[in-house]
Amino acid sequence: MLEISKQDIISRLQFDNPWWEQGRQGKVVYENKPRRKYFEPFYQNILDVSVHRAIVLMGPRRVGKTVMVYHCIRALLDSGINEKNILYISLETPLYTGLPLEKILNYFQELFRHGRDANLFVFFDEIQYLRNWEVHLKSLVDSFADYRFIATGSAAAALRLKSIESGAGRFSDYILPPLTFAEYLMFIGREVELIKTSLVAATKSNPYRLLKYSALNIEALNEEFVNYLNFGGYPETVFSETIRQDPGQYIKSDIIDKVLLRDLPSLYGISDIQELNRLFTTLAYNSGNEVSLDGLSKSSGVVKNTIKRYLEYLEAAFLIRRIERIDQNAKRFKRAMCFKVYLTNPSMRAALFGQLDAEAKAMGAMTETAIFSQWQHSRIIELYYARWNSGEIDIVNLDRVNQSPAWVVEVKWSDRPLSSPSELDNCLEFVKKNPTVSQPIMVTSRTIVKEVLVYKGVHFTFMPASLYAYGLGANLLQRIDDKMQYQRIL
Question: Do 431 and 404 form a contact (C-beta atoms < 8 A)?
């Protein structure tokens, strides 16, 4: 039986690293694609050699991890790094199947006579396809102190869990989420046309700018918000007219199915793939709604213990996000049998059940899903929802120190509450029980902006949901920019 030869592997390495032959001025794939706002801090982490760790870039499929890697390679070449000091390997390539990382690295070292003290940048793309990858990567980090190792992976379940088990002190994880609504508008070139930005304030204690946003054309902004719900979470769909014509086929076959039918079963030995698929379909249809283990078991036909395990897998793989329930006193339940589930990217629902329009019945739930999706870009905010016999609050933030409610948001895709404020009685009840809630309380609308409405002594403010979603993502992304500028000044 023929075995893959060393020369075949080296030939593939040369094919995957064309800058070795072309030099710094040669073209790098994807170099003309726009860079996501997350590129700069990720790239700076790569350059920071004071931290002796491998960087593991995690995230859902097709959000731009490989593109970001190539952008980093382009930036390294432009900065003067020798082209022969950069190695890119996609472990999804069949030729590399089963090969230890160190063996591939040794071929690279031999090819250019690199010593252990060389200034090398080594990128392992889709690293989860190597069994026990974390053991291999940890060994390389320990053995080659002057090399910079960067890995990417879509099957975040394996990456996150195994990095905790085997890579403690050796890996720094970096998460790349789906596109925010702000990034979507930037990528399609309509941000300046639809959004007005103004500076609110700045303080000596806070070096970051505080910005306020307003809609220049709320109807057009809402149209793009609906487009964002249908296909805007993936960079590729934004740039490809062909994919936009049938985003459901692209998202379902190339993203959802690969995770459900290939990645998760192979990682966890799941034998009943259809069972996992049924559960995910049920969850996707109920995105933005409260579900229970009993209800999920009945609707999907999956036993509760299996559901618990599948939920962990789906959440770790960035397909869903669970939000814990609290009561009207902001107390958690000892046995959390009910919770809300959100797709991490609202476009997945449209791929499974058809595209939405502005009047669709599911718009309320998907608006809520989109707003939660923007919050994926922050790790420091603890979000819950409150529900009791007579009411519900969609979003509750608990103070990290004293666990009391700091602020709340009511998510609506309707202008009705402004003219029928009795729909806000649930907020009154919650504020009465929890006076720590800051006012005015944010209520999203469809088109109406109102700075302050006083209803039975409680202050409310209204903002279109599309503008609120934009502002969430834009402020978090702006904070990234400002942080990088502030660090440069220091």
Answer: no
